[in-house]
């Protein structure tokens, strides 16, 4: 309470100068006692708010009263020698309070950091520290006296370093120093995950906590100082955090297939953090941080889209040689579908990115069989995934052409298309994009490939024991000899071929046995006409045993039918950098 406000209403105004002189005299004694000039150069200073809490409150009360007296003199234009005295006392008091504020903030920074970094949902009990109220009291006193700039200077000199130290503890200094080019998948994953974790802590604890501290100390006295103090201490650190993210998003030479997933993880993390970022950095003076976050999102989206295009291009340009011995699953099929299935898990972020690039989702360039009738299947993201799979299937067609044996090429297509269909069917997010109709259509196509394999591989055997016109000129014995030779050759070759799916394998064996054995049984007696002296007759049971031994998948380069004897392992590299 000031000396003026404490006077009774009936007190004659003539007594005011005397009362104010007494108040100035009292203030002069207390301010002189704690003057910065009284600090010894040879001994550590004594701090008022640390040693004597009651006298500290008296000091604040005294300075507030002095401010009221000065306001009275200025408002009434009353000339008085006390004006200069009061002004000098105020300057001395402000220097002392600035020093006290700096000291209290310094000795309690670690405690404040601990309390602020444990804040949850924007609420924090920093009042558990008794000096928090002292800092607020000093700040409000200095603000009323017009010394806000000095106050912000003192606050920044302590808290900016405290914020920077917290960011160092979170690992941002180490992250900034990393060389991203040529970084392996494992290290890349660790780096991005470390950045995401540190970013959440920086926004949710460090910067949010600093905003809470600024609001507590300066709030209610000056919104402008809340803004300027927070901007001075937090903006540079925040920009550093998101610049590190930009370095990752814009890194050149990072061609691993894993990078797109890490970029999408970063994108999702930032999207999740944006509401809090907008709340914490809501001031005009901190809008640069919000802009930087948006720039980072833009760079991430650009990099994700470019990486998606790179993936499609890498599949399109993948070498068609060497073919897989035995017609099994090509490495490209396995790795591409693994990649596509994982991409489908990021449908939300990819949907918005693909929508921003409509040229990448033109339905007119796609076969009608690649769409079902659902609305979801015609969305840009569904079309984009359908196109990725179509590019893969077209490449598999090209690879199939490298087989010398057409029946093996059909078996290769049946195997690989079956895997593609099964990955779509068993991946809920991918099935949702492609639709049940797509699965049904392409499952039928895989079965057609299997049927074409069966006809191409076994018609040349069966024709000798049927009414095939090409064998009409052969005698019965000659036809049986040729049947036996063709059958043995087919078994020898196809024993090392591969049918990956167990059900498809058994279905093919059953179908082959049914057609071969039934045709053989139906005409073998007629062909021999009772003369078996020159023909080693095969029993139907023997045929079934031989057929049951097919598709063992034991690679025999002499019977693989591929255009190259090289193992598929030589192609087991990442897509990028081929």
UniProtKB/TrEMBL annotation:
GO terms for biological process: exocytosis; protein transport. The keyword Repeat does not apply. Residues 194-549 form the Exocyst complex subunit Exo70 C-terminal domain. One of its GO terms (cellular component) is exocyst. The keyword Cytoplasm does not apply. Residues 557-571 have a biased composition (Low complexity). Keywords: Exocytosis, Protein transport, Transport. Pfam families: Exo70_C, Exo70_N. GO terms for molecular function: phosphatidylinositol-4,5-bisphosphate binding. PANTHER family: EXOCYST COMPLEX PROTEIN EXO70, EXOCYST SUBUNIT EXO70 FAMILY PROTEIN. Belongs to the EXO70 family. Component of the exocyst complex. This is Exocyst subunit Exo70 family protein.
């Amino acid at each position: 309470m000031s000396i003026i406000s404490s006077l009774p209403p009936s007190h004659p105004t003539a007594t005011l100068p005397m009362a104010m002189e007494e108040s100035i005299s009292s203030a002069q004694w207390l301010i002189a006692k704690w003057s910065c000039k009284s600090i010894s150069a040879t001994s550590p200073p004594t701090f008022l708010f640390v040693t004597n809490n009651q006298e500290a409150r008296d000091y604040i009360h005294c300075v507030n009263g002095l401010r009221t007296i000065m306001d009275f003199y200025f408002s009434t234009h009353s000339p008085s020698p006390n004006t200069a005295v009061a002004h000098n006392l105020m300057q001395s008091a402000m220097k002392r309070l600035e020093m006290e504020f700096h000291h209290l903030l310094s000795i309690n920074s670690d405690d404040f950091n601990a309390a602020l970094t444990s804040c949850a949902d924007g609420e924090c009990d920093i009042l558990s520290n008794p000096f928090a109220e002292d800092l607020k009291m000093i700040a409000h006193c200095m603000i009323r006296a017009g010394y806000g700039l000095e106050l912000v200077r003192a606050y920044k000199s302590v808290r900016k370093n405290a914020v920077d130290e917290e960011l160092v503890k979170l690992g941002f200094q180490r992250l900034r120093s990393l060389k991203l080019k040529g970084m392996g998948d494992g290290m890349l994953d660790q780096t991005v995950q470390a950045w995401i974790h540190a970013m959440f802590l920086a926004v949710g604890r460090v910067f949010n906590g600093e905003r809470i501290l600024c609001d507590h100390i300066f709030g209610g006295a000056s919104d402008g100082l809340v803004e300027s103090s927070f901007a001075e201490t937090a903006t540079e650190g925040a920009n550093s955090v998101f610049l590190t993210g930009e370095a990752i998003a814009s890194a050149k030479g990072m061609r691993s297939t894993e990078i797109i997933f890490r970029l999408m993880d970063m994108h999702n993390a930032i999207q999740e953090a944006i509401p809090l970022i907008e709340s914490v950095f809501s001031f005009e003076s901190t809008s640069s941080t919000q802009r930087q976050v948006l720039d980072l999102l833009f760079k991430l989206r650009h990099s994700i889209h470019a990486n998606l295009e790179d993936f499609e291009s890498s599949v399109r340009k993948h070498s068609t040689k060497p073919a897989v011995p035995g017609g099994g699953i090509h490495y490209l099929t396995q790795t591409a579908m693994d990649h596509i299935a994982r991409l489908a898990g990021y449908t939300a972020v990819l949907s918005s990115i693909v929508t921003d690039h409509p040229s990448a989702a033109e339905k007119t360039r796609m076969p009608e069989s690649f769409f079902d009738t659902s609305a979801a299947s015609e969305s840009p993201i569904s079309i984009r995934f359908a196109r990725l799979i179509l590019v893969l299937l077209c490449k598999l067609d090209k690879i199939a052409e490298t087989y010398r044996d057409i029946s093996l090429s059909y078996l290769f297509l049946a195997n690989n298309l079956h895997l593609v269909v099964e990955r779509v069917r068993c991946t809920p997010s991918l099935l949702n994009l492609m639709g049940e109709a797509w699965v049904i259509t392409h499952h039928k196509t895989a079965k057609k490939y299997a049927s074409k394999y069966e006809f191409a591989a076994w018609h040349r055997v069966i024709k000798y024991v049927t009414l095939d016109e090409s064998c009409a000129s052969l005698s019965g014995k000659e036809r049986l000899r040729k049947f036996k030779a063709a059958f043995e050759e087919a078994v020898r070759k196809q024993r090392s071929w591969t049918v990956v799916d167990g059900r498809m394998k058994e279905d093919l064996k059953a179908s082959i046995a049914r057609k071969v054995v039934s045709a053989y049984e139906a005409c073998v007696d007629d062909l021999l006409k009772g003369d078996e002296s020159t023909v080693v007759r095969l029993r139907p049971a023997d045929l079934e045993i031989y057929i049951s031994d097919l598709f063992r998948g034991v690679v025999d380069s002499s019977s693989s039918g591929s255009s190259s004897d090289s193992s598929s392992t030589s192609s087991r590299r990442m897509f990028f950098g081929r």
